[in-house]
Amino acid sequence: MEEIPVKVAVRIRPLLCKEALHNHQVCVRVIPNSQQVIIGRDRVFTFDFVFGKNSTQDEVYNTCIKPLVLSLIEGYNATVFAYGQTGSGKTYTIGGGHIASVVEGQKGIIPRAIQEIFQSISEHPSIDFNVKVSYIEVYKEDLRDLLELETSMKDLHIREDEKGNTVCACC
Predict the structure, then answer these.
(1) At which positions is ATP bound (predicted)?
(2) How far is it, in rounded angstroms, from Cα 142 to Cα 148?
(3) Is 53 one of the annotated binding-site residues?
């Protein structure tokens, strides 16, 4: 059986101000010096990477994404999948705060990767690069391309192409 090189990271965000004001409690804890978290009192889960509530955007990017970007520049495909319930911190981790006002340390995965990819392209003028990007939102059973304003959720479907590759296609 072929090994699939998938890594799973979990990032735990701190309580929001409104959550602290309403006396909400933290329900996920990091086990120190491990890649494990505890949910509730005794449910332990292990991941490839664990980032606690004080982790920085820089830590997440350098640990999880930078190796993918370096492989991407060498010609490999890369996918980053952010999963979590509404309000769990996906948008902050992926993009940062409000994109027009993000300070350097708060930049998320996408702005950092774009900067690194195009910096590398500019440093290698003799190499012909072809960059293709998708930014797909999966909400309930619907898919939406966030880079294509004209595509409705009903127009995207996940299919397998003739080579057995999984692709997201317009119908």
Answers:
(1) 84-91
(2) 15
(3) no
52 marked among binding-site residues? no
Judged on CB neighbours under 10 Å (0-12, 13-18, 19+), 133 is: exposed
Any binding-site annotation on 84?
A: yes
Known binding residue 88? Answer is yes
Which of residues 37 and 152 earns the better pLDDT score? 37
Residue range 24-39, pLDDT digits in tens:
888 899 999 999 999 9
Strands (E), 12-163: 28-31, 36-39, 43-46, 49-51, 136-139, 142-145, 156-160
The pTM assigned to this predicted structure is 0.80
- State the distance between the two ends of the chain, measured CA to CA, in whole angstroms: 33
75 assigned ligand-binding residue:
no
Domain locations along the chain: 1-54, 55-130, 133-170
Q: Is 79 annotated as a binding residue?
A: no
